[in-house]
Amino acid sequence: MNYLRLWWLILVAALLGGLAGFLFSRAHAPVYEAIAIYMVTIDPDIIEQETLDMYDKDIALSATYGALISPDVINYVLSEAARLGQNTEYINLIANTSFERRHAFWELRFRSSDPEFAQTLVNLWAEKGYQAMLKSQVDGATPAYVIFSPPSPAGRPEKPIYFGTNKLVMAGSAIGWLVGLLGVELAGQRFLSRIKS
Q1: 113 CB burial (10 A radius; 0-12, 13-18, 19+)
Q2: What is the C-alpha to C-alpha distance for residues 154 and 163, in angstroms, rounded to an integer?
Q3: Can you tell me the distance from the alpha carbon of 125 to that of 128, in angstroms, rounded to the nearest whole number?
Q4: What is the pLDDT of residues 27-78, one digit of tens each?
């Protein structure tokens, strides 16, 4: 019965918890993400001549990822990061990088607290990676029917990105809700003890 009578307390606690989660997500230094995009396709003339199943196509198209993380490309990116006066640790580079495939498009994403550095490094990486893709075809490591288009360079990121905001708000709300339930329970017990005394 107390829960129905003090529903507003539970609601306020949940809202305050969600607000705390939101503020916590914004308490970190801003991070900017620059994105370079590749288009990688299969030559339609080759597809008509040969029977390629989806597995073969995926393996061929994954050469994009392989080229972007090849030792030569990674070493180049690390040396460019050092030249630009930034952190040159491999673990830091990989922790701030992601690769996403969306059908024929591959996105190379790099995050940094410095938007200009994020843009510069991802574009250098994208160009070096493209050279590595073409070289892998010349060397015969990638099938000739894979068509690599030059990367679309990243623009300068203007707005920071925030990770986990929704999860932090939900977690804060859940904790606030539990605190609200506990508060109502304690208030009910105090009320009962006063009646008995």
Answers
A1: middle
A2: 20
A3: 5
A4: 667 889 999 999 988 887 765 555 666 776 777 778 888 999 999 999 999 9
Q: At residue 131, does pLDDT exceed 90?
A: yes
Identify the helix (H) or strand (E) that includes residue 97. strand 97-102
As given in the structure block, the two tokens for residue 143 are: 């099938």
Quote the tokens at residue 32: 């900017």
Helix axis angle, 7-26 to 165-196, nearest 10°: 150
What H or E segment, with its residue span, contains residue 134? helix 115-138
In this structure, are residues 110 and 121 in contact, taking their beta carbons and an 8 Å threshold? Answer: yes
Q: What backbone torsions phi and psi does residue 97 show, to the nearest 5 degrees? A: -125, 145
Q: Tokens for 158, please give them.
A: 């203007």
Spatial separation of the C-alpha atoms in residues 95 and 180, rounded to whole Å: 38
* Options 3.30.1890.10, 1.10.10.10, 3.50.50.60, 3.40.50.2000; CATH of 32-148: 3.30.1890.10
Q: What is the mean pLDDT of the chain?
A: 83
Among 161, 169, 118, 188, smallest CA distance to 14 is for 169
36 — phi, psi (to 5°)? -105, 140
pLDDT of residue 193: 64
CA distance 11 to 117: 44
